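Reading a protein record of the kind used here takes only a little practice. These numbers are not coordinates but entries in a learned vocabulary of local backbone shapes. Here is one such record, which you should read through line by line.
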Amino acid sequence: MQEKGSISIHSENIFPIIKKFLYSDHEVFLRELVSNAVDATQKIKSLGTLGEYDGDLGDLSIEIKIDKKNKTLHVIDKGIGMTGEEIKKYINQIAFSGATEFVEKYKEKGEGSGIIGHFGLGFYSAFMVADKVEIKSLSREKDATPAHWICDGSTEFELKDGDKKERGSEVILHINEDSVEFLEEHRVNEILTKYCKFLPVPIIFGETEETIKEGEGDDAKEKKVNVPKVINNTTPLWTKAPADLTDEEYKDFYKELYPFSEEPLFWIHLNVDYPFNLTGILYFPKIKNDFDIQKNKIQLYSRQVFITDEVKDVVPEFLMLMHGVIDSPDIPLNVSRSYLQSDSNVKKINNHITKKVADKLAELYKNDRKSFEEKWDSVGLFVKYGMMSDDKFYDKAQKFCLLKSIEQYKHFTLDEYKESIAGNQTDKDGNVTILYATNPGKQDAYITSAQKKGYDVVLLDSPIDSHFINQLEQKLEKTNMKRVDADIVDKLIDKDEKAESVLSDDEKEKLKKVFEEAINNSSMTVAVEALSPDELPVSLTMPEFMRRMKDMQQTGGGMPFMGGMPDQYNLTINANHKMASKILKAESEEAQKNIAKQNYDLALLSQNMLNGKDLTNFISRSVEMMEK
């Protein structure tokens, strides 16, 4: 048997699905209805511009009203309006979008670009919260008859002549018992502020008090009156030309978006019309090291309607720490306009934003390096994150990525720093070694030892630096990176130089045995080395590889099995320090072990690893030694 035909879809079956499951969050019904009202308003404005409507446009604001007594919510516009036939066409036919039809009809005349709707489904979100919905409408057509449509949420409807006197439409929702929250002013205001804050048509909800003057001159008196409250900014900053804006306006807009945030460092104004439409403003905030809590601060809009703050596909991951707004009608959304869908435009926009950020940072560095350096603690997170995430960004950013010297209090580019330290920090194999510290306070003894050798140390203390260090080693030719406390100073940079020991091999072996017995810790690898007499008597270090893997694992990454491995440390005894000879000359084995244990505890203390009972014993032992 062979047969062809068309699948039959019955509205009585699909209608409940649309009402209940199309939108994950019931509050978006108000976004959809207000968006429809904006579309109707934009259409009448377009027809007026084209000369196809010669009536008085008048006040084009949209009003939202609550009637608690009758349990109704009203969305009223003064837009294009509908005849009874148009209601049957656009409302009764599910997924027939009047917005799409209008755009297609007028796109050659340059109108319709401000129309929001596409799918024709948004109106039915009203039935998520309402038992009955009414539409009262009067078309812009001359001598049109008002229409009144009523539906109780089933597939049955009533359409009759209405009594509306003014052009436009009023949608009346009879709120159901489960959704009475949408009859509360604070809840409706919350939704309007979230989704409609920047719509291009004034949205009125409630009243606000204003002071006006009555009379003239000295007789003028101030009077407080209630006036309609417009809840939105119809011309947000991103819709304006960058050349027309001042720094103060950008900062004020940032305060409007994030009222309790510190002033931003700087910003990027996006304004693209080919090969896709994209506008927006991205701000670089002042970032602290707990940067995870800063994410999800970029808001995505489509023609000034808020969509989401989940923009990870549009904005590169490393720029998710930025704040601001992106608006694009070319970002594909799912049918409910609640989620992004991936396509080539999303990737193009993502690449464009990356390029714009790189160009802006390069410009700031070139034009005012001093100011750029002052902002580096915050900007550095973006730059390093980007360099690890995107090779193209790395190629641009390596020219303005900075390293900060602890001793010199000076910033260097990567090339500048390598050149600065090459003379004294090149090992026997010709590799330049960059020494870094993550906590100068705790690592001060090691930093001091390095500085005595003429070595420089940079500060790398951000949450992502453990990963960034690996990136630099992979990218920079003949370059090693070592944390300043990863080994004794003579081994940090292997120059194949060996110091003479004042102890014989037998004495060194005996000293090693004393320490092993005194500390009794299998996690410690004990070695006796000939170091400068000025160096510490005992040094405790964790090998660079193990420490780095553990650091990386704490911030996500590294090798998972490292977390389950016990910490391994190297304990290095300075054979040339007078303390070594003192231990060997001690009057008894017990005295030798006491001095060894004291020096071991000092090494632990220098690494902030001495606590509890061991710390108490160390203090008691120190007091006893001072009393002798």
In short: The longest strand covers residues 203-214. The chain has four domains: 13-206, 237-371, 403-492, 505-627.
